[in-house]
Task: structure prediction
Amino acid sequence: YDIYAAPVLSQSEKLRGTVVVLHDITELKRLEKVRKDFVANVSHELKTPVTSIKGFAETLLDGAMDVAEHREEFIRIIQKESTRLEELVVDLLELSKIEQGNFNITFMAVELDQVFEEARALMAKRAEEAGIELVVDAPVGLVIAGDASRMKQIAINLITNAIMYTPAGGTVRMSAAEHAEEVEVCVVDTGVGIDPEEIPRIFERFYRVDKTRSRHSGGTGLGLAIVKHLVDAHNGQIKVESQPGEGTTFRLFFKKKTN
Ligand code: ADP
Result:
């Protein structure tokens, strides 16, 4: 609590009483902590690739340039770390736009099979490189009220994760089904799964179940935070079911497009 106290005086300056104001700052303190943690996380996430890029560039200039195999290897690391930096900055800008309410959802009729197909085309190469079968299964003509480009972004983020956390030989399946009042969209993988107690936290910014594993595989830790915001903006719901060692299902529910 913040506490303010002030005497109340009469006209002849006699003490009549005291006013005490108790100001509950628990929520303010919590928000301030969230903000500080976020800044610390961002700084740390940005510093890691920058340090690596700087180090390898310096090593090259200090003579590694003359050794052909080092030259190639170090330049590749610089390229990889720059890509990571770029992804991080893109996700951060995206998240900050969304969190400031600085984005528009244009509610239109979105044909899910088309959105899925575009997402599949964009992710096909990555899935193939990871040795994962990417299956898309949406009935033609299934329509929801939403924003097609945002829906595609949701699909891409979920598929990216599903591929990242599924060992080679596995399957990632994206499907849609129609219920009485809503449309259900699923992204199912046969990957490493998520412990039940971790599930409530995975939508937090920068939260990772296994930090080393995730950073190693190139995640930014922001993908699901973005997904959650976009699903909320569509008045949708998102549920996660997972069986560690067997796989994970992200289940999304959206209002059907009526009329
Ligand atoms: P990241 O960029 O690290 O993947 P996300 O916000 O997209 O960040 O996801 C947060 C964390 O949730 C991940 O680090 C990972 O531990 C876990 N996770 C997300 N999707 C899956 C999945 N399909 N299978 C297993 N774990 C997952």
Notes: Strands lie at 2-9, 15-23, 108-111, 133-137, 143-146, 171-178, 182-189, 237-243, 247-255. Residues 161-162, 164-165, 189, 191-194, 202, 207-210, 214, 219-225, 248 surround adenosine-5'-diphosphate (CB under 6 Å). The mean pLDDT is 90.
